[in-house]
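Lab notebook, bench 4. We co-purified these components, and the gel suggests they stay together. Before we commit to crystallization screens, I want a quick structural picture of the whole thing.
Request: model the full complex, all chains together.
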Amino acid sequence: MSIDVTVQVLKDNVGKNIMIKLKGDKVIRGILTKFDQHMNLVLSDAAEYKAGDQTKLGNILLKGDNIIIISPQE
Amino acid sequence: MSIDVTVQVLKDNVGKNIMIKLKGDKVIRGILTKFDQHMNLVLSDAAEYKAGDQTKLGNILLKGDNIIIISPQE
Amino acid sequence: MSIDVTVQVLKDNVGKNIMIKLKGDKVIRGILTKFDQHMNLVLSDAAEYKAGDQTKLGNILLKGDNIIIISPQE
Amino acid sequence: MSIDVTVQVLKDNVGKNIMIKLKGDKVIRGILTKFDQHMNLVLSDAAEYKAGDQTKLGNILLKGDNIIIISPQE
Amino acid sequence: MSIDVTVQVLKDNVGKNIMIKLKGDKVIRGILTKFDQHMNLVLSDAAEYKAGDQTKLGNILLKGDNIIIISPQE
Amino acid sequence: MSIDVTVQVLKDNVGKNIMIKLKGDKVIRGILTKFDQHMNLVLSDAAEYKAGDQTKLGNILLKGDNIIIISPQE
Amino acid sequence: MSIDVTVQVLKDNVGKNIMIKLKGDKVIRGILTKFDQHMNLVLSDAAEYKAGDQTKLGNILLKGDNIIIISPQE
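Here is the predicted assembly.
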């Protein structure tokens, strides 16, 4: 069994572009700058995508408890 | 791994204008005056935005457990 | 970081008129008479507002876990 | 700050008629006979009210975690 | 204040017919055979009632966290 | 009061056919092969039933926190 | 009673193709590469299936608390 799977993955992606799927079919993209063990994320250059529309958000703090999927974007 | 990501971000924004996205597609804007480690926020000059309408709320206490995203507003 | 933001705000408003937004778009107004650290509130002269209608409730005990926003009413 | 606000209010209402608003727009009325610190209530002569209809329930045990508001009925 | 209100009520109803209201407007009736302190119930001769239809379920284990109301059926 | 009601019932049904009702009106049937104290279940020969349709799932791990009712199938 | 049923099943499926059903009728398929005791999963070659459509996701971190069912895919 691997411990702290979420921390490992997030550590590897600091400074990189990630996509986050939230409850309620929201999708956020941005550059991961900080995170903690509750999957709270700080993103820069973030934008929200919903039903084809993009809304620029800039720097955001995203609460971990609404996250369903995190995916690194090559 | 960074500890207390939410506290760091909130500390940097006391006295500044922030935008908060809540569950149920509510958006609140206001000046952050106080906060605690549960992301409970005290805002002054707050207003709620929903489907294009703005409702002035004045001073409010906002419970942290409904927050999805916090974004500083330059 | 400020500790016990909710207690501070509630303490300052005992005996005063407050507005509470609950999950499910309910709004309650009343005079705050008592509270505890879970944001459970006792209100007198309370009324519920929904879609323009007002329902008088008198004295109520309001459970803290349904609260989204508390706002003092000048 | 007052401790145990819910216990105080419930203690004062044993043997009396109370109205309870539950999540999902259910309203229950009945005579409070027992309670515990989780707001679990035992009611006698209870009835449920929904959209103008009344359903007699008799003696019931009502779980505290669905309660939004409790109001004594003079 | 009474402690363990739910245990008292359930103890008094072992071997008796009870009605349970669950979240999502489901109603279950059956004979209570066992229970624990989480309100997990074992029922025999159980049936589900929804919108006028009855579905026989026989022996069931019912998880306590979906229960809203328990009512003894004379 | 009986302790560990869920463990008792699950233990009696290892190797037997059970029906599980999940939140969201999903019904799963299968042979119980393993379980733990959180009601996490391992089923073989499982299938999902929804609105009259059956989908074969084979071996599955079913998380306990979505379960409403477990019923042994004679 | 078996302890750690979820860990056993996940351990047996590292490097293999699994199907995950999430709340909100989402289905994810991918190769399990890592996991932890909260059922947080790391998948490679993942894709999302919804109402007949497939969306490629590549490498993803999937939070355990949205999972309903995990099924190994032979």
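The radius of gyration of chain A is 12 Å. Worth comparing against the SEC data before the next meeting. Residues 5-72 of chain A form a domain with the SH3 type barrels. fold (CATH 2.30.30.100).
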